[in-house]
Structure formats: structure tokens, C-alpha cells
């Protein structure tokens, strides 16, 4: 199938925009690769330190003829998505030995959960944790003892941080190994109703806690289609997972078999063999465009609008919001997974999942089939799904048709003809809106602004009964330079109640929402941010703001912003408590959100 000219045009634009930076990157990776297997250049003393505790593998490591894998793990046992990784290092080492190689845990990286820190001061460290993860993984790989890396990470900032590091060490092959989603618990729509009842005071904390615990109940990722599961989709679309690996539940025979197969594949694509596949070559323009296509076709997390530019920059590739917007305009929305629908990712997987979706998109010419992947050249094998037959892992043709068109539809009969994201630009700056869950009659909201500078103030106004008419709620000074750009998802139940009462409401912020952002129109990631003197800092209560996802605009109406002075509030409270003292240099150095809000890249 010939590539759709709209997808080709975006790819060509990215390639042209990135020409010089990509070439510099590839030259650097070539020089690193030409140095040969790295352990050959280590002194005997260097190697003795590296192998001292490797019982049973010392001879193989010292001889240097067998490939050695570096394991980068985000394991901790307080986060459900990462708890399954506890047993992975030993599984990986055993699988490597069976395949004639070795593996060592090179290092660990932090993994924090936005679900735990939602609405709390710790959320202000969340986005910056992506850069910490990249730095920590870089330290781990700097020991220079590895022929390839395997990456154990799932959630919001973990996978993007790991990709930044994998691209920086792009002369090494990298295989990402997922843990899978938890089994289905309390349906997401029921949980949302309970949250709204709590917001209105109709139920107490005991009932709320019971619902939350019934929803988040076991090991694995949360089952809604938030950032964690969007990350897993992305790794498959970009060719860094084995085919069909993303949504297999933890602690199952198939999950274990896929982990073993990923290890074998990582050993098989090092420079010591005949199928060298360094990460820097896989992470090219085609891979990132394929990832953008997957983001739009699934209605994925808005957090990836921040992460993908930073990830791409690490590989010498420059993405812009216009690339997201143009691909969204070309790609149909094929999935309805909560918060865009009632199903969870387990239901999506059962309906045909990523294999079916990728096949449809390839047939429609909306993906680059010729992209390189860890599994081989081309994406055709990603149509297949893994199965255990008599205890042996095989890949077979996936579903030829959707098994449930309420959840997953063909590209020729989508839920909507365009993807779930719109770029917004106007006199209030640039931002994005996730439209896939927002009813079309709410894609345009024009109403007086009510200005807030933190989430608690919005909730206090709601509890005081102050929202009685159509309102654009503006929460400013929430950008990376102001306070680390926390998610404001904690406001979703409150704003949803107002919407359900018949009011026309929207949110405008230089902060984030998340993959869990729902049915309330939200113009997010507004840049320049208010703390940098952006237009949001010049808004006043009562200004008429128009949020227009149809025209792709975001404006204050009838106001000359140039005649106003930007407010400069006291943000000193953001600089201390719950570790925020340690991140002042990050706040001072953070980039613009339109380009990924990066610190180290």
C-alpha cells in the first residue's frame, strides 16, 4: 500500500526540519558503533570491578565473546505497574544464559505515579522525573560494559525518560519489555460516577475509597487508556516491543514467554551478530511518525504531546505541534477506550487490539510499513499476535475483523474521521486539546474567564457555589518554570459536575491534564507559560475567552493584551517541601512546553 500523501508530507517536513541535527546525531552514533564491542576496550581492572559479583557468568563476561545485556529497571513495589518487574532481572539472566549470553542489572531509575501524587505537592516533581530517569539511565549505561540494553518501564514519565537515554546511547540496540495491564476491576464509568458523587458531597470518603480500591486492585498498569498504556502502544507502534507484547497481563505464562523472547531478540541484534539494530537507527522519522499515528488512532494521552518532542530531540529529530495537528487531521479515531469510551485496555486487546489496528492503518497507507523494528525490517509482523502452543511461543495472524465495534473499528468506519487531538493557537498562545472524549457540541466554548492560580482555589469556589453561569476556568502559573507543570486532572470531577448541571465550561491552563482527561474541553500546555510573561498572565476575571477546537483557535475577545502588564505573583511556595528544594535548577532551566519542556535535552 502506498503511503498516504498527508503522512508523507509530514514525514518529509520533519526530515527537512531535522536534517542537520539528525545527521550530527547519526555521525556521533556511527563513531560510537565503529569502536566495536565496548568491553574489548576496558582494562582488566575495569572488568574485574564490573564482574566481581556475577556468579556463574564471570568466564563468559571475561572472554567477551558472548553479548552482555544491561538491564535498566524501574522496579518498585508501591506502584502496581512496576511491581511485576521484581522478578524480571532473574528471568532475563536465565533467558540470556540459555541463549548463550549474559545480563546484568546496570541500574535502576525512579518511577513515580501521577495517580498517587495527583493534586499533591509531589506532582510538581512528576514531569521533571522524566529528565531524572534519563540521567539515571545514562549513569547506568556509562559503565560501558554492554552490547545491548533491555528496558523495564511502563508509566507516565518512565518510558519517555528511558527513550531519551536509549537514543543518547543509540549505538546500542534497545528492547523494551512491558509488564502488562492489571486484570479488569470496577468499570471505569462506575468509578467516574462515584468520584462525581464525592465531589458534590453525596457520598463520603469510605464509599469513594471502596470504589477506588475496586478499580486499582492488583499488579499491572491501570486499565484505563491513560499515559501508561499510551506508552505501551507507542513502543509497539515505534517497533521497540516485540509484536503483540503490550497488553498481555502480568504473571501469566504468555507474559513470561514474551519476556524470554525479548531477551533472545536483544542478544540477537547486537554488533557481535549479523543483524545489528542499534536504537538510533530504529528511532528515525518514520518511527516517530508511526508513533504519532498510533496516538491519534487510539485517542491517546495528551502527555505524549510533551514527551514525544523531547524523545525525538534526543535522536536529532525536531517535532512541532503542527506535526501532531496534521497527523490528527489525517488519521481516523478507531478506538473507544476509557475515558473516551466505556471499555478498558483488556477489552480493547480482546477486540483485536494493536495488531488489528496496525493492520488496518497499514492497509490504509497511514503508517510507514518499511520502518525498522527490533523484530525485523517492516511492520507486517506487527499484524500478528503471540500465542502459546504446547508451551511454545509462536506468532499467528491476528483478528481479521474487530471483535467488538463498540470498542475498535476499522479505518473505513471509524468513530470519527480524524484523530483525537487539536492544536490551538491565538492571542493566548499555543496549546492542545484532546477532543476524542469531548462531545462535538462542546468543541467551541465562549464565556467569561474566571482566573485561578492553583487547583485548591477552583475547588473552594465550587464548594462555595460560585459557578452559576457559563465559565472558562483559567488555571495559570502551572507551567514547567512556575512549578514543574503538574497535572490538573484532579479538577476533572468538579468541572464535569458543572457541565452535567447544564453549564458550558472549559479549562484553559499552562499546566497538564493527562491521559485520563475526559469530557470537559481543556486547552492545555499553553505556551508561552504565564511565569515567563505569557498571555495568560495578562488575563483578568470577566474577560471573554473563546476556546475553539473546530477552528483550532484560543483567544481572548475584545482585549488588547499588549496594553496590559503581565502579573508576577509570588511563586516562592513552589520551591520547598516534598523535595521541591532539589529541583530549583530544573525549574530555572525547563524548556518551552511546545518543545517538550525538557531540561537535559
From TrEMBL:
A GO molecular-function descriptor: metal ion binding
Essential cofactor(s): [4Fe-4S] cluster
Binding site for [4Fe-4S] cluster: 155, 222
Occurrences of domain Dihydroxy-acid/6-phosphogluconate dehydratase N-terminal (ranges): 67-380
Domain Dihydroxy-acid/6-phosphogluconate dehydratase C-terminal: 406-597
InterPro entries: 6-phosphgluc_deHydtase (IPR004786), Dihydro-acid_dehy_C (IPR042096), DiOHA_6PGluconate_deHydtase_CS (IPR020558), ILV_EDD_C (IPR056740), ILV_EDD_N (IPR000581), IlvD/EDD_N (IPR037237), Thiosulphate_STrfase_CS (IPR001307)
Family under the similarity heading: Belongs to the IlvD/Edd family.
Protein name: Phosphogluconate dehydratase
Taxonomy of the source species: Bacteria, Pseudomonadati, Pseudomonadota, Alphaproteobacteria, Rhodobacterales
